[in-house]
Protein 1
Amino acid sequence: MSILIDARTRVVVLGMTGAEGTFHTRRMIEDGTRVVAGMTPGRGGTRHLGLPVFDTAAEAVRSEGADAAAIFVPPAAAADAIMEAADAGIGLVVCITEGIPTLDMIKAKAFLSGRPTRLIGPNTPGIISPGKSKIGIMPGPIHKPGPIGIISRSGTLTYEAVQQVTRQGLGQSTAVGIGGDPIVGLKFLDLLRLFKEDAETEAVVLIGEIGGAAEEEAADYLREEFGKPAVGFVAGLTAPPGRRMGHAGAVIEEGKGTARVKMEAWAAAGVRVAVSPAEIGATLKNAIGRVG
Amino acid sequence: MRIHEYQAKRILAGHGLRVPRGEVADSPDRVGEIARKMGSPVVLKAQVHAGGRGRGGGIRSAETPERAEELGRAMIGMNLVTTQTGPGGKLVRRLLVEEAVPPARELYLGVAVDRGREAAVVLASTEGGMAVEEVAVGRPEAIFKEYFRPGPGLRSFQARSLAFRLGLTGDIHKQAVRFIDGLTEVFESQDASLVEVNPLVVTPDGNVLALDAKMTFDDNALFRHPDIRELRDPEEESPLEVEAERFNLQYIKLEGRIGCLVNGAGLAMATMDLIRHAGGTPANFLDIGGGASEEGVANAFRILVSDPGVRAALINIFGGIVRCDLVANGIVRAARELRTRVPVVIRFEGTNVEEGKRVLRESGLAFHPAAGLKEAADMAVALSRPPGGESS
């Protein structure tokens, strides 16, 4: 098993005919993803990468039964694409786009409330259930099917964690990037609930970073309900306050959202927190060893 | 993106909100001229992107134009150090010369993004003139909040309620409501991330006006606000950071000895942490991004080593879309051109890692290849220490 996506997931790519969309759609297909359609307004009725292209997300759902969407739409139009996918009834929307204005995302999240659609991202590498499906831009070959769930706010740091997990002889059930923006869809808490219910997932690796409180919000659940081993790392111990560290959401504001506070919250909740990013894999091995 | 107080006040005035009469001066003569024109006591305010100016000597009052000119001479060109500038301080290039407003009741108004609630929030407080985050800790009951979303916006009853909770009545209540509406309008129409008036003052003769104003804007939304983008003052930023931005690099200068060049923001932060964990100090944050070109990498490397504090460089690449061989070519090119003597530790992983290592080997340059993260950090820390000297 895995969470959110598996081999049956039918993906429509919003913005598939653009340069980014084309490049990554090709790679998703290579990594085994069942991409069923593309969507670019004004290009309906054409074909691209051997797939049908539609003007609207709703047509892709009606005609090809798409139940997940990948968004490679430029920042100015990406929030609208999220809302269009949700309006079409698509259950899982993965928004890769970086650089969406914050107020656009506040509107999009308000639109999603009360609808069943789950959003991953924006500003995320996406989600992968190795060997089954990948909706995103992460390099497929570093992944391996296995019992570890991964939740991360980062991109390449996630690949680092994935590789360390793989090198411990373990693999991933599902790895999810929740996104580096201030306003995102599913967060640590939402995904932990899904991993708890997933029989294949035996332990999780959590990668946080400075800014916001998504890490702390998951602490109570981790301590009281999650019940599986969890390993964590939080980036940004050396980040200066008030500066945005690459990600729009990675900023210590008015002294809040520091790496130390997040690490302490997780440690107090029973998460084994790696003090160095080089020790994520070893910490995981250790945590599983002691439990099992 | 941050703007100056005088720019923020112009935006407020443009929305019909009252601010003290004032003009900007970049010379002592001009300060005197403005003060004479005002014909009243004035306040001189240093225009730098940092708070806490008052305690650092960046806000001074003058009874006469002569005194204003004298103070102007002392303040323009001074290096202003406040709690927010860091020990290096900030060079004062301009002063805002304003009519002095008599001591009055001071309130606080701010509009910001609340990440947890995924909404905008108006904050109002009876404790004006203090940092709102200090009030939040010491007297949270003195802060009132109303949440809203762009689109529907803040409702009239919410603005009225805030003004009532501030204890305002009659015409002053009406003026405060106009202020709250105006600030939310600026926030929403200009894609601000913070609009703050602290203090908002109520004068003895019954006027409400913004004595100070601070605004920051969402960098991601500047594409639809060319007029706001114009207000940027690159002199307030580090020259290396401005240079880096020209090449689409995310660079933040720090004070340490080990320069980092990394792909991805999270990994870049983690690399800084790794250096600290190994006993060294990071000299910068530098993310070359997911779509970096060979030329971009070469520029990144050049910017990194042009920081005079850098004693060693650590290049940490986890190839995904960015290929290790592309990064290697960029580094080799820049290292040849610059003939830098900074030792360079390189750790490659991911896409085209073997090709990348081969490019480094065949360059004939004396790079220090590292097998893993920990080894890379240990090597960089050792190389950053002065030979035979004490560690620092």
Protein 2
Amino acid sequence: MGRKTPLFALHQELGARIVDFGGWDMPVQYSSQIGEHHAVRRSAGVFDVSHMCVVDLKGPRVRALLAQLLANDIAKLKTAGKALYSCMLNERGGVIDDLIVYFLTESWFRAVVNAGTRDKDLAWIRRHAAAFGVEVIERTDLAMLAIQGPEGRAKAAELLAPAEREAALALGVFVGRELGRWFVARTGYTGEDGFEIMMPGADAAPAWRRLNSLGVASCGLGARDTLRLEAGMNLYGNDMDESTDPFESGLAWTVALEPQGRAFVGREALEAIRARGPGPKLVGLLLEDRGVLRSHQKVLVPGVGEGEITSGTFSPTLERSIAFARVPAATPARVQVDIRGKLLNARVVKPPFVRFGKSLVT
Amino acid sequence: MSNVPADLKYTKSHEWVRTLADGTVEIGITDHAQHALGDLVFVEVPEPGRSVKQDEPCAVVESVKAASDVYAPLAGEIAAGNPALADAPETVNSDPYGAGWLMRVRPAAGAVAAAELLSAADYQKVVAAEGG
């Protein structure tokens, strides 16, 4: 048996199918994965993301620590509450993890890292934090709910006291703040508007039930995966890991090589990779034939070479299969995918596939 | 509790078998199997004329999450694949023992007879042992 979030008993009561995810017993779906997906695109759904690891970093030199640890530039965070998405790299430029970090005060930043990488992330952060005198506090006391969809913020706001409600609805995109005992952030992993709310574990089940009573659908990790793929968002372990760098993972936009003086871990390796010229790239694929693209299927690029699908699924919104694939730099607009020995036609597109309920591909 | 019709035969790998009047057998996946897989989004059925051995993978059912093989319960030649599933794979979820059939097989001479497969009662035990 794996680790359990404070919502585990409620998931069972709601009839969820439980699977192992990064060592955690998590709900993959409640009734219909496609139904849960549509609930988020059309109205609102709630996900238990308490398996993710919230880490508070405290100390007067925390900003200097993050300038060294993160490939994105922490100096971009100028106003309290603002969040930054970044990779944390090893010396070879490989991705240890991707994370979100919130700037709360000059001596307090809060990171959210993946469940499956929790132990190695904490060890890596602590190893570097010591030299900066930064305290690394794993917030195992907190649960986290993601309420996503066009009606998500309005529904979630009903859980708050009137004064806090107004403050929550005033939050800008990618901004969070403490409201009473909760930390409310306008972030997510679905391509829809919404909140992610960190709260004491004991608050989670009553909040979930209240959301259900307001018409917010319980959603599992299955729908979370199809939503994030449609939204063009990477999944650590599938689309990038320690053997791949951000440039070949569609994450060049998160690497801040300017200013040149900022010495972050992995910088030298990334500069060397860049000096070698164009390498493999991560692209979106849209399957034109019938079938379902899956990770590890081979992509054939005529006259150029081969690539591989890193994440693939059936897109409930587009009603066809979509994927991310790592392919050679010179890949043209059309490729073929080997599915059980059959070569099927796919078109190369730029993710995201879907945003705010609307298809972005034709 | 999943639906296990008493008049069909079954396999441990969750296929059902119905003997038709012309001596061919109709094959599909059980209610338990479709429920475990979840919403089906793609079904690949075999071409007529293909010879299959017992336990050979001969069809594929894909849910949003994963692709799963369907095995031939007995040896024979494919008489038909269900053509309606290309446009409506979800029929396997909604009507697994009826319109959601996958293929029809003409049993080979000397093949395991359909009568020798699992009875409904025996299949119920297989499902129960899996916690279903």
